[in-house]
Amino acid sequence: MKFRLTKEEKSWAFYDWANSAYSIIITTAVFPLFYKAAATNAGVSATDSTAYLGYTISIFTFILAMLAPILGTIADYRGMKKKFFTGFFILGTGATAALAFIPADNWLMLLIVYTFAALGSTGANVFYDSFLTDVSTSERMNRVSAFGYGIGYFGSTIPFIISIAIILLSQSGVIPLSVTNASRAAFLITAAWWLLFSVPMFRHVHQIHFIEPDQQPIIQAFKRLGNTFREIRKYRGLFLFLLAYFFYIDGVGTIISMSTAYGSDLGIDANSLLIILFVTQVIAAPFAILYGRLADRFGTKQILYVGIAVYTFVCIYAYSMDSVADFWVLAMLVGTSQGGIQALSRSYFGRLVPKENSNEFFGFYNIFGKFASIMGPLLVGVTAQMTGNTNAGVFSLVILFIIGGIILYFVPDPSRYEPVPEN
């Protein structure tokens, strides 16, 4: 039988299409270069400007990690999930558009506004992820989550191509724009794309599973959160998965976030790195969808192990990497699995959580995902400095995938997992 998505499932997945423009243009490609140029124009050294950007990422990551489970617990009440999602959405799109109007040498204001944009984007994703339990069933979550990641990768390439084309044409003088204004145009394109394609999410996705609010919802939300921690043994499957996820997604995130640094060490120029990044996105889209289909046929955990195995091979192969061709091979391998492993992790977790508490538990899911981004880069940095070899730093990530894979073995099948929390 042909798999058909419902209107609600399509509308939910389309938010991946909308928000992915932010991920590639603001987080990965255009904004970091724009900020570095602004800092350089203001007389800030390259080392200091990189450090300040790192501090900014750490600050908003910490803020969101602290807020996510608290806000998520409150959002489990009837009608609250969409309100929190909308609030973060407005913050993210508004701050992204505001980046276009900051003076080109005001690097500090750029970082401040970027902090709000990042909080909005990542905060909205906490509630977006938890809506998966409202739009789909446990049996369909693999395909729906993978479809979201797949069209997200496809969708992100369109505004990315438009933005890069405007920047390159301005550099060559084909269009009467400075490079600075061309980058600002990219910020506006991102905000407009994000706004436009989020409309189906707002129109057709609604909170189905919820807890009825009482007279003191905030106080009761904190009590529920505390109760979850006290009764953690009754959610053993959930937290075993989160522990496994913490390790293997740390390796995934480190490889993705530090890929341009590896490429630069091999002498690959910025334009070539952008091309490789684009091709990786294109490859990631169909493979994310393929992972969802394979998971339905062979089992989610088994296909998660395929993704872990691919990344383990990437780390081993990276140890002997010494050419641009090697980097292309690694990039294509990463492209085959980065979307799939993230999509199946989201759906596997969504099938484990009690649906009426989905926001609370997806808050934990995002905490583990955010804090996981600390250990991998540290492991790479320490290993690289001790050995004097960047490749050895990448190779060291193997340990994260091995630990994550071992813990994943003990995570129960969602179809046989029933948490029984006390009231």
UniProtKB/TrEMBL annotation:
It is found in: Cell membrane. Its main location: membrane. The chain crosses the membrane at residues 12-35, 55-77, 84-102, 108-128, 149-170, 182-202, 238-258, 270-291, 303-321, 361-380, 392-411. Residues 237-423 form the Major facilitator superfamily (MFS) profile domain. It comes from the Bacteria. Keywords: Membrane, Transmembrane, Transmembrane helix, Transport. Pfam families: ATG22. It is a multi-pass membrane protein. InterPro entries: Atg22-like (IPR024671), ATG22/LtaA_families (IPR050495), MFS_dom (IPR020846), MFS_trans_sf (IPR036259). This is MFS transporter. It comes from Bhargavaea changchunensis.
